[in-house]
Amino acid sequence: MMSLAESGSSIETRDLGKVAIIGAGVAGCAAAIRFAQRGAKVTLFERSVFPREKVCGCCLGAAGLAALDAIGAGESVRDLGLPTKFFRGYFQVTKASSAVTQMVGEKASRVPPVRIPIREGIALSRAELDQHLLTLAIEAGVEVRQPCEATIVAESDKSVSIDIGTGSPEAFDLMVVAAGLTGRFRQRDVADLRWVETPNGPMGLSAHMSRDDANQIDWILESGEIQMHCGHDGYVGIVCLPNGNLDIAAAVHPGKKGASGEGVGRMAIQMQTLALLLDSGLFDSSQSRKLEHWFAEAARWQTTPPLRRRRVSGRGRVVAIGDAAGYVEPLTGEGMTWGIESGLVVADLWALYRLGQMTPNGEADFGANWDRRAVKFQTRRRHLCRWVTGMVRYRPARWLACHGLRRAHWLATPFTRSLANGPRFDATSSIHRTAMSFADASLRTHVSS
Ligand SMILES: Cc1cc2nc3c(=O)[nH]c(=O)nc-3n(C[C@H](O)[C@H](O)[C@H](O)COP(=O)(O)OP(=O)(O)OC[C@H]3O[C@@H](n4cnc5c(N)ncnc54)[C@H](O)[C@@H]3O)c2cc1C
Predict the structure, then answer these.
(1) Which of 29, 44, 47, 52 to mutate for ligand 1's pocket (most ligand atoms within 8 Å of CB)?
(2) Which residue range(s) make up the domain with 240?
(3) Whose CA is nearest to atom 51 of ligand 1?
(4) FAD dependent oxidoreductase domain: from which residue to which, for each copy (predicted)?
Protein backbone atom coordinates (compact mmCIF):
# COMPACT_ATOMS: atom_id res chain seq x y z
CA MET A 1 0.00 0.00 0.00
CA MET A 2 1.15 3.51 -0.76
CA SER A 3 2.29 6.09 1.75
CA LEU A 4 0.80 9.58 1.73
CA ALA A 5 3.93 11.03 0.14
CA GLU A 6 4.02 8.32 -2.54
CA SER A 7 0.36 8.70 -3.45
CA GLY A 8 0.73 12.49 -3.43
CA SER A 9 3.65 12.35 -5.85
CA SER A 10 2.07 9.89 -8.28
CA ILE A 11 -1.32 11.47 -8.95
CA GLU A 12 -1.86 14.05 -11.62
CA THR A 13 -1.54 17.62 -10.33
CA ARG A 14 -2.64 20.96 -11.80
CA ASP A 15 -2.86 24.54 -10.63
CA LEU A 16 -6.19 24.38 -8.82
CA GLY A 17 -5.99 27.89 -7.39
CA LYS A 18 -6.57 28.88 -3.76
CA VAL A 19 -8.96 26.70 -1.81
CA ALA A 20 -10.18 27.42 1.75
CA ILE A 21 -11.64 24.66 3.89
CA ILE A 22 -13.64 25.52 7.01
CA GLY A 23 -13.41 22.74 9.60
CA ALA A 24 -10.73 20.10 10.21
CA GLY A 25 -12.96 17.12 11.02
CA VAL A 26 -12.61 13.98 8.91
CA ALA A 27 -14.37 15.55 5.89
CA GLY A 28 -12.31 18.75 5.96
CA CYS A 29 -8.97 16.94 6.45
CA ALA A 30 -9.66 14.37 3.71
CA ALA A 31 -10.67 17.15 1.29
CA ALA A 32 -7.61 19.20 2.24
CA ILE A 33 -5.26 16.29 1.51
CA ARG A 34 -6.92 15.49 -1.84
CA PHE A 35 -6.99 19.14 -2.97
CA ALA A 36 -3.33 19.56 -1.99
CA GLN A 37 -2.36 16.33 -3.79
CA ARG A 38 -4.19 17.58 -6.88
CA GLY A 39 -2.17 20.83 -6.85
CA ALA A 40 -4.34 23.36 -5.00
CA LYS A 41 -2.97 25.89 -2.52
CA VAL A 42 -5.05 24.87 0.49
CA THR A 43 -5.73 26.72 3.74
CA LEU A 44 -7.60 24.78 6.43
CA PHE A 45 -9.34 26.72 9.22
CA GLU A 46 -10.25 24.99 12.49
CA ARG A 47 -11.81 26.74 15.46
CA SER A 48 -10.99 24.10 18.15
CA VAL A 49 -7.68 23.23 19.68
CA PHE A 50 -6.75 19.63 18.84
CA PRO A 51 -6.79 16.95 20.07
CA ARG A 52 -10.52 17.27 20.79
CA GLU A 53 -13.25 14.71 21.26
CA LYS A 54 -16.63 14.99 19.57
CA VAL A 55 -19.90 13.06 19.65
CA CYS A 56 -19.20 9.95 17.58
CA GLY A 57 -19.41 6.17 17.71
CA CYS A 58 -15.75 6.08 16.56
CA CYS A 59 -16.24 3.22 14.07
CA LEU A 60 -14.88 3.60 10.56
CA GLY A 61 -15.97 0.99 8.03
CA ALA A 62 -14.55 -0.55 4.86
CA ALA A 63 -15.73 2.17 2.46
CA GLY A 64 -14.22 4.92 4.61
CA LEU A 65 -10.90 3.07 4.87
CA ALA A 66 -10.89 2.52 1.09
CA ALA A 67 -11.37 6.25 0.53
CA LEU A 68 -8.50 6.97 2.95
CA ASP A 69 -6.36 4.48 0.99
CA ALA A 70 -6.81 6.69 -2.07
CA ILE A 71 -5.12 9.62 -0.32
CA GLY A 72 -2.45 7.42 1.24
CA ALA A 73 -3.88 7.65 4.77
CA GLY A 74 -5.56 4.23 5.08
CA GLU A 75 -2.61 2.22 6.27
CA SER A 76 -1.58 4.55 9.09
CA VAL A 77 -5.20 4.93 10.24
CA ARG A 78 -5.57 1.12 10.32
CA ASP A 79 -2.37 0.96 12.41
CA LEU A 80 -3.79 3.40 14.96
CA GLY A 81 -7.21 1.77 15.25
CA LEU A 82 -8.52 -1.42 16.80
CA PRO A 83 -10.09 -3.79 14.21
CA THR A 84 -13.86 -4.25 14.43
CA LYS A 85 -15.30 -7.52 13.17
CA PHE A 86 -18.95 -7.82 14.08
CA PHE A 87 -22.06 -6.12 15.48
CA ARG A 88 -23.68 -7.61 18.55
CA GLY A 89 -27.22 -6.26 18.56
CA TYR A 90 -29.55 -6.17 21.56
CA PHE A 91 -33.10 -5.41 20.44
CA GLN A 92 -35.73 -4.19 22.87
CA VAL A 93 -38.69 -6.40 22.01
CA THR A 94 -40.81 -5.99 25.10
CA LYS A 95 -42.47 -2.74 26.13
CA ALA A 96 -39.85 -0.32 27.50
CA SER A 97 -39.73 0.23 31.25
CA SER A 98 -41.18 3.56 32.23
CA ALA A 99 -38.62 4.45 34.87
CA VAL A 100 -35.00 3.58 35.35
CA THR A 101 -35.54 3.21 39.05
CA GLN A 102 -38.08 0.49 38.35
CA MET A 103 -35.55 -1.48 36.41
CA VAL A 104 -32.77 -1.42 38.92
CA GLY A 105 -33.25 -4.31 41.22
CA GLU A 106 -35.58 -6.05 38.81
CA LYS A 107 -34.54 -8.50 36.18
CA ALA A 108 -34.97 -6.81 32.82
CA SER A 109 -36.31 -8.88 29.92
CA ARG A 110 -33.54 -11.04 28.50
CA VAL A 111 -33.59 -11.35 24.75
CA PRO A 112 -30.56 -13.09 23.28
CA PRO A 113 -28.47 -10.74 21.12
CA VAL A 114 -27.79 -11.19 17.41
CA ARG A 115 -24.34 -11.27 15.90
CA ILE A 116 -23.68 -9.81 12.43
CA PRO A 117 -20.21 -10.01 10.87
CA ILE A 118 -18.82 -6.99 9.03
CA ARG A 119 -16.24 -6.92 6.24
CA GLU A 120 -13.69 -4.53 7.67
CA GLY A 121 -13.56 -1.70 10.15
CA ILE A 122 -11.65 -0.01 12.93
CA ALA A 123 -12.45 1.78 16.17
CA LEU A 124 -10.45 4.90 16.91
CA SER A 125 -11.19 7.93 19.10
CA ARG A 126 -11.98 11.11 17.21
CA ALA A 127 -9.29 12.93 19.17
CA GLU A 128 -6.68 10.61 17.64
CA LEU A 129 -8.20 10.20 14.17
CA ASP A 130 -8.75 13.89 13.50
CA GLN A 131 -5.34 14.85 14.90
CA HIS A 132 -3.68 12.22 12.71
CA LEU A 133 -5.48 13.35 9.54
CA LEU A 134 -4.58 16.95 10.32
CA THR A 135 -0.92 15.98 10.62
CA LEU A 136 -1.13 14.22 7.24
CA ALA A 137 -2.73 17.32 5.72
CA ILE A 138 0.18 19.44 6.93
CA GLU A 139 2.59 16.87 5.44
CA ALA A 140 0.71 17.19 2.13
CA GLY A 141 1.43 20.93 2.12
CA VAL A 142 -1.81 22.29 3.59
CA GLU A 143 -1.56 25.52 5.58
CA VAL A 144 -3.47 25.09 8.86
CA ARG A 145 -4.82 28.02 10.89
CA GLN A 146 -5.94 26.88 14.32
CA PRO A 147 -7.62 27.82 16.55
CA CYS A 148 -9.53 30.26 14.43
CA GLU A 149 -13.17 30.60 13.50
CA ALA A 150 -13.63 31.41 9.82
CA THR A 151 -16.62 33.36 8.51
CA ILE A 152 -17.63 33.91 4.89
CA VAL A 153 -18.01 37.68 4.50
CA ALA A 154 -18.34 38.22 0.71
CA GLU A 155 -18.94 36.31 -2.51
CA SER A 156 -18.67 37.21 -6.17
CA ASP A 157 -18.36 35.39 -9.51
CA LYS A 158 -14.59 35.64 -9.21
CA SER A 159 -13.89 34.77 -5.57
CA VAL A 160 -15.20 34.21 -2.08
CA SER A 161 -13.74 35.93 0.98
CA ILE A 162 -13.50 34.92 4.59
CA ASP A 163 -12.55 36.73 7.73
CA ILE A 164 -11.03 35.12 10.81
CA GLY A 165 -11.75 38.04 13.08
CA THR A 166 -8.85 40.19 11.93
CA GLY A 167 -11.01 42.54 9.87
CA SER A 168 -8.86 41.83 6.76
CA PRO A 169 -10.82 39.38 4.57
CA GLU A 170 -8.85 36.95 2.42
CA ALA A 171 -10.07 35.90 -1.06
CA PHE A 172 -10.16 32.30 -2.35
CA ASP A 173 -11.20 30.63 -5.60
CA LEU A 174 -13.27 28.02 -3.76
CA MET A 175 -14.70 27.70 -0.26
CA VAL A 176 -15.34 24.21 1.10
CA VAL A 177 -17.56 24.23 4.19
CA ALA A 178 -16.83 21.17 6.35
CA ALA A 179 -18.02 22.75 9.58
CA GLY A 180 -20.02 19.79 10.93
CA LEU A 181 -23.38 19.99 12.74
CA THR A 182 -22.67 23.05 14.84
CA GLY A 183 -20.45 25.22 12.64
CA ARG A 184 -21.28 28.88 12.03
CA PHE A 185 -19.60 29.86 8.83
CA ARG A 186 -21.16 32.97 7.28
CA GLN A 187 -21.86 36.55 8.16
CA ARG A 188 -25.54 37.43 8.51
CA ASP A 189 -25.78 39.44 5.30
CA VAL A 190 -24.17 36.71 3.14
CA ALA A 191 -26.63 34.32 1.49
CA ASP A 192 -26.85 30.98 3.28
CA LEU A 193 -26.84 27.46 1.89
CA ARG A 194 -30.53 27.10 2.73
CA TRP A 195 -32.05 24.08 4.46
CA VAL A 196 -33.88 21.53 2.35
CA GLU A 197 -34.76 19.69 5.58
CA THR A 198 -34.36 21.70 8.79
CA PRO A 199 -32.69 19.91 11.73
CA ASN A 200 -35.06 17.40 13.35
CA GLY A 201 -35.15 13.87 14.73
CA PRO A 202 -32.89 12.29 17.31
CA MET A 203 -30.17 14.06 19.26
CA GLY A 204 -26.70 12.60 19.69
CA LEU A 205 -24.65 12.18 22.82
CA SER A 206 -21.49 10.37 23.73
CA ALA A 207 -18.97 9.82 26.50
CA HIS A 208 -15.94 7.67 27.16
CA MET A 209 -15.96 5.17 30.02
CA SER A 210 -12.51 4.43 31.41
CA ARG A 211 -11.21 0.87 31.29
CA ASP A 212 -11.28 0.82 35.15
CA ASP A 213 -14.93 1.91 35.30
CA ALA A 214 -15.85 -0.67 32.65
CA ASN A 215 -14.06 -3.38 34.67
CA GLN A 216 -15.90 -2.28 37.82
CA ILE A 217 -19.21 -2.74 36.03
CA ASP A 218 -17.85 -5.92 34.44
CA TRP A 219 -18.81 -4.57 31.03
CA ILE A 220 -16.29 -6.37 28.83
CA LEU A 221 -16.65 -6.38 25.06
CA GLU A 222 -15.35 -9.27 22.98
CA SER A 223 -12.43 -8.47 20.69
CA GLY A 224 -13.75 -6.85 17.48
CA GLU A 225 -17.24 -6.26 18.89
CA ILE A 226 -19.45 -3.26 18.14
CA GLN A 227 -22.27 -3.51 20.66
CA MET A 228 -25.63 -1.99 19.70
CA HIS A 229 -28.72 -1.56 21.89
CA CYS A 230 -31.80 -0.66 19.84
CA GLY A 231 -35.18 0.39 21.17
CA HIS A 232 -38.14 2.59 20.35
CA ASP A 233 -36.49 5.79 21.60
CA GLY A 234 -33.22 5.30 19.73
CA TYR A 235 -30.06 3.29 19.98
CA VAL A 236 -26.73 3.19 21.79
CA GLY A 237 -23.45 1.92 20.30
CA ILE A 238 -20.47 0.84 22.36
CA VAL A 239 -17.00 0.04 21.12
CA CYS A 240 -13.65 -0.56 22.80
CA LEU A 241 -11.02 2.02 21.82
CA PRO A 242 -7.31 1.21 21.42
CA ASN A 243 -6.57 2.57 24.95
CA GLY A 244 -9.11 0.17 26.50
CA ASN A 245 -11.74 2.83 27.22
CA LEU A 246 -15.29 2.35 25.95
CA ASP A 247 -16.85 4.86 23.58
CA ILE A 248 -20.59 5.08 24.30
CA ALA A 249 -22.56 6.98 21.65
CA ALA A 250 -26.32 7.27 21.35
CA ALA A 251 -28.93 8.85 19.14
CA VAL A 252 -32.21 9.25 20.98
CA HIS A 253 -35.45 10.92 20.07
CA PRO A 254 -36.22 13.96 22.24
CA GLY A 255 -39.68 15.31 22.86
CA LYS A 256 -40.85 12.48 25.05
CA LYS A 257 -40.74 12.37 28.78
CA GLY A 258 -37.42 11.01 29.93
CA ALA A 259 -37.19 8.07 32.25
CA SER A 260 -36.94 10.34 35.26
CA GLY A 261 -39.73 12.64 34.15
CA GLU A 262 -37.67 15.47 32.66
CA GLY A 263 -38.76 16.86 29.33
CA VAL A 264 -36.44 17.52 26.41
CA GLY A 265 -32.92 18.28 27.51
CA ARG A 266 -29.52 16.93 28.18
CA MET A 267 -30.61 15.07 31.30
CA ALA A 268 -33.61 13.54 29.55
CA ILE A 269 -31.58 12.08 26.69
CA GLN A 270 -29.02 10.74 29.16
CA MET A 271 -31.80 8.96 31.03
CA GLN A 272 -33.24 7.59 27.78
CA THR A 273 -29.79 6.28 26.91
CA LEU A 274 -29.47 4.59 30.30
CA ALA A 275 -32.95 3.09 29.89
CA LEU A 276 -32.00 1.67 26.46
CA LEU A 277 -28.96 -0.02 27.99
CA LEU A 278 -30.79 -1.41 31.02
CA ASP A 279 -33.78 -2.60 28.99
CA SER A 280 -31.57 -4.79 26.84
CA GLY A 281 -31.21 -7.29 29.66
CA LEU A 282 -27.41 -7.36 29.40
CA PHE A 283 -26.87 -6.15 32.96
CA ASP A 284 -27.88 -7.78 36.22
CA SER A 285 -29.14 -5.61 39.08
CA SER A 286 -25.71 -4.99 40.62
CA GLN A 287 -24.25 -3.96 37.25
CA SER A 288 -27.29 -1.80 36.59
CA ARG A 289 -26.78 0.10 39.86
CA LYS A 290 -23.11 0.71 39.04
CA LEU A 291 -23.99 1.82 35.52
CA GLU A 292 -26.65 4.18 36.83
CA HIS A 293 -24.11 5.60 39.29
CA TRP A 294 -21.57 6.11 36.48
CA PHE A 295 -24.18 7.92 34.39
CA ALA A 296 -25.04 10.22 37.29
CA GLU A 297 -21.59 10.87 38.76
CA ALA A 298 -18.72 10.13 36.41
CA ALA A 299 -19.78 10.39 32.77
CA ARG A 300 -18.79 13.50 30.84
CA TRP A 301 -21.37 13.77 28.10
CA GLN A 302 -21.11 15.73 24.90
CA THR A 303 -24.36 16.33 23.01
CA THR A 304 -25.49 17.46 19.56
CA PRO A 305 -28.50 19.37 18.24
CA PRO A 306 -31.17 17.34 16.35
CA LEU A 307 -29.28 15.26 13.83
CA ARG A 308 -31.44 14.77 10.74
CA ARG A 309 -31.04 17.58 8.23
CA ARG A 310 -30.10 18.46 4.67
CA ARG A 311 -29.13 21.71 3.05
CA VAL A 312 -28.47 22.96 -0.45
CA SER A 313 -24.87 21.85 -0.64
CA GLY A 314 -23.46 24.36 -3.07
CA ARG A 315 -23.92 27.80 -4.58
CA GLY A 316 -21.47 29.92 -6.56
CA ARG A 317 -18.00 29.16 -5.26
CA VAL A 318 -19.19 27.75 -1.93
CA VAL A 319 -19.74 24.03 -1.38
CA ALA A 320 -20.64 22.03 1.73
CA ILE A 321 -19.43 18.51 2.52
CA GLY A 322 -19.78 16.05 5.41
CA ASP A 323 -22.26 16.82 8.19
CA ALA A 324 -22.35 20.46 7.10
CA ALA A 325 -24.21 19.35 3.96
CA GLY A 326 -26.62 17.00 5.68
CA TYR A 327 -27.00 14.07 8.00
CA VAL A 328 -29.08 10.90 7.93
CA GLU A 329 -28.50 9.10 11.25
CA PRO A 330 -25.55 7.35 12.73
CA LEU A 331 -26.95 3.87 13.46
CA THR A 332 -24.75 2.18 10.93
CA GLY A 333 -21.72 4.39 11.48
CA GLU A 334 -21.55 5.84 7.99
CA GLY A 335 -21.15 9.57 8.74
CA MET A 336 -17.35 9.68 8.63
CA THR A 337 -17.23 7.57 5.47
CA TRP A 338 -19.63 9.86 3.63
CA GLY A 339 -17.72 12.93 4.78
CA ILE A 340 -14.37 11.51 3.61
CA GLU A 341 -15.78 10.37 0.25
CA SER A 342 -17.40 13.72 -0.47
CA GLY A 343 -14.10 15.47 0.37
CA LEU A 344 -12.31 13.42 -2.30
CA VAL A 345 -15.03 13.76 -4.93
CA VAL A 346 -15.35 17.53 -4.54
CA ALA A 347 -11.59 17.92 -5.02
CA ASP A 348 -11.59 15.80 -8.19
CA LEU A 349 -14.58 17.64 -9.65
CA TRP A 350 -12.97 21.00 -8.93
CA ALA A 351 -9.89 19.75 -10.77
CA LEU A 352 -12.09 19.09 -13.82
CA TYR A 353 -13.50 22.58 -13.64
CA ARG A 354 -10.05 24.09 -13.49
CA LEU A 355 -9.07 22.00 -16.52
CA GLY A 356 -12.02 23.48 -18.35
CA GLN A 357 -13.69 20.10 -18.80
CA MET A 358 -17.03 20.99 -17.24
CA THR A 359 -17.62 24.66 -17.80
CA PRO A 360 -21.06 25.52 -19.10
CA ASN A 361 -20.90 28.76 -17.08
CA GLY A 362 -17.39 28.60 -15.72
CA GLU A 363 -16.19 28.02 -12.17
CA ALA A 364 -18.89 30.29 -10.75
CA ASP A 365 -21.28 27.45 -11.57
CA PHE A 366 -19.37 24.93 -9.52
CA GLY A 367 -21.44 25.17 -6.31
CA ALA A 368 -24.77 24.67 -8.07
CA ASN A 369 -23.33 21.74 -9.99
CA TRP A 370 -21.98 20.17 -6.82
CA ASP A 371 -25.40 20.54 -5.22
CA ARG A 372 -26.99 18.57 -8.06
CA ARG A 373 -24.37 15.84 -7.89
CA ALA A 374 -23.25 15.82 -4.25
CA VAL A 375 -25.59 13.33 -2.69
CA LYS A 376 -26.11 11.21 -5.79
CA PHE A 377 -23.12 8.95 -5.31
CA GLN A 378 -24.39 8.12 -1.81
CA THR A 379 -28.14 8.10 -2.44
CA ARG A 380 -28.56 4.34 -2.29
CA ARG A 381 -26.65 4.05 1.00
CA ARG A 382 -28.38 7.10 2.54
CA HIS A 383 -31.82 5.68 1.75
CA LEU A 384 -30.80 2.32 3.14
CA CYS A 385 -29.63 3.86 6.43
CA ARG A 386 -32.76 5.96 6.78
CA TRP A 387 -34.93 2.94 6.13
CA VAL A 388 -33.09 0.81 8.72
CA THR A 389 -33.10 3.51 11.39
CA GLY A 390 -36.82 4.02 10.75
CA MET A 391 -37.54 0.30 10.98
CA VAL A 392 -35.76 -0.26 14.31
CA ARG A 393 -38.17 2.20 15.93
CA TYR A 394 -40.96 -0.36 15.44
CA ARG A 395 -41.25 -3.18 17.93
CA PRO A 396 -42.48 -5.80 15.39
CA ALA A 397 -39.51 -4.94 13.13
CA ARG A 398 -37.11 -5.32 16.07
CA TRP A 399 -38.76 -8.59 16.99
CA LEU A 400 -38.33 -9.84 13.41
CA ALA A 401 -34.73 -8.63 13.25
CA CYS A 402 -33.95 -10.23 16.58
CA HIS A 403 -35.42 -13.62 15.79
CA GLY A 404 -34.58 -13.71 12.08
CA LEU A 405 -30.96 -12.61 12.36
CA ARG A 406 -30.27 -14.86 15.32
CA ARG A 407 -31.14 -17.88 13.19
CA ALA A 408 -29.65 -16.59 9.93
CA HIS A 409 -27.20 -13.70 10.29
CA TRP A 410 -26.55 -13.88 6.54
CA LEU A 411 -29.91 -12.14 6.05
CA ALA A 412 -28.04 -8.93 6.93
CA THR A 413 -25.28 -9.55 4.37
CA PRO A 414 -26.81 -7.56 1.47
CA PHE A 415 -27.16 -4.63 3.83
CA THR A 416 -23.64 -4.74 5.34
CA ARG A 417 -22.11 -5.42 1.91
CA SER A 418 -23.98 -2.54 0.36
CA LEU A 419 -22.72 -0.12 3.00
CA ALA A 420 -19.15 -1.39 2.66
CA ASN A 421 -19.09 -0.56 -1.06
CA GLY A 422 -18.46 3.07 -1.83
CA PRO A 423 -17.18 4.78 -4.95
CA ARG A 424 -13.92 3.37 -6.25
CA PHE A 425 -11.16 5.92 -5.80
CA ASP A 426 -7.87 5.41 -7.54
CA ALA A 427 -4.82 6.87 -5.83
CA THR A 428 -2.75 7.09 -8.98
CA SER A 429 -5.25 7.85 -11.72
CA SER A 430 -5.46 11.03 -13.75
CA ILE A 431 -7.96 13.68 -12.88
CA HIS A 432 -9.94 12.58 -15.93
CA ARG A 433 -10.14 8.94 -14.97
CA THR A 434 -11.24 9.54 -11.42
CA ALA A 435 -13.46 12.58 -11.80
CA MET A 436 -14.99 12.03 -15.23
CA SER A 437 -16.30 8.70 -14.05
CA PHE A 438 -18.38 10.59 -11.48
CA ALA A 439 -19.15 13.57 -13.64
CA ASP A 440 -20.33 11.78 -16.77
CA ALA A 441 -22.88 9.64 -15.05
CA SER A 442 -23.83 12.25 -12.48
CA LEU A 443 -21.60 10.69 -9.89
CA ARG A 444 -23.11 7.29 -10.40
CA THR A 445 -22.00 4.79 -7.83
CA HIS A 446 -19.12 2.56 -8.75
CA VAL A 447 -19.68 -0.49 -6.73
CA SER A 448 -16.67 -2.69 -6.39
CA SER A 449 -17.30 -6.33 -6.93
C1 LIG B 1 -24.21 9.62 18.22
C2 LIG B 1 -23.39 9.60 16.98
C3 LIG B 1 -22.63 8.47 16.66
C4 LIG B 1 -21.89 8.44 15.48
N5 LIG B 1 -21.16 7.34 15.20
C6 LIG B 1 -20.45 7.28 14.06
C7 LIG B 1 -19.65 6.14 13.76
O8 LIG B 1 -19.52 5.21 14.55
N9 LIG B 1 -19.01 6.11 12.56
C10 LIG B 1 -19.08 7.14 11.66
O11 LIG B 1 -18.50 7.05 10.59
N12 LIG B 1 -19.80 8.25 11.94
C13 LIG B 1 -20.47 8.34 13.12
N14 LIG B 1 -21.17 9.47 13.41
C15 LIG B 1 -21.18 10.56 12.45
C16 LIG B 1 -19.85 11.32 12.45
O17 LIG B 1 -19.52 11.73 13.75
C18 LIG B 1 -19.96 12.54 11.55
O19 LIG B 1 -20.65 12.20 10.38
C20 LIG B 1 -18.58 13.07 11.18
O21 LIG B 1 -17.92 13.52 12.33
C22 LIG B 1 -18.72 14.23 10.19
O23 LIG B 1 -17.46 14.79 10.00
P24 LIG B 1 -17.32 16.29 9.51
O25 LIG B 1 -15.88 16.46 9.19
O26 LIG B 1 -18.34 16.61 8.50
O27 LIG B 1 -17.71 17.19 10.78
P28 LIG B 1 -17.01 17.29 12.20
O29 LIG B 1 -16.25 16.06 12.51
O30 LIG B 1 -18.06 17.74 13.15
O31 LIG B 1 -15.93 18.46 12.03
C32 LIG B 1 -16.32 19.79 11.85
C33 LIG B 1 -15.17 20.68 12.33
O34 LIG B 1 -15.41 22.02 11.91
C35 LIG B 1 -14.98 22.90 12.93
N36 LIG B 1 -15.67 24.18 12.69
C37 LIG B 1 -16.99 24.42 12.72
N38 LIG B 1 -17.25 25.69 12.38
C39 LIG B 1 -16.05 26.26 12.12
C40 LIG B 1 -15.66 27.58 11.69
N41 LIG B 1 -16.57 28.54 11.45
N42 LIG B 1 -14.34 27.84 11.53
C43 LIG B 1 -13.41 26.88 11.75
N44 LIG B 1 -13.72 25.61 12.15
C45 LIG B 1 -15.04 25.31 12.32
C46 LIG B 1 -15.38 22.19 14.20
O47 LIG B 1 -14.62 22.65 15.30
C48 LIG B 1 -15.05 20.73 13.85
O49 LIG B 1 -13.75 20.37 14.23
C50 LIG B 1 -21.90 9.55 14.60
C51 LIG B 1 -22.63 10.70 14.93
C52 LIG B 1 -23.37 10.74 16.10
C53 LIG B 1 -24.12 11.98 16.45
Answers:
(1) 47
(2) 82-122+200-305
(3) 56
(4) 18-48
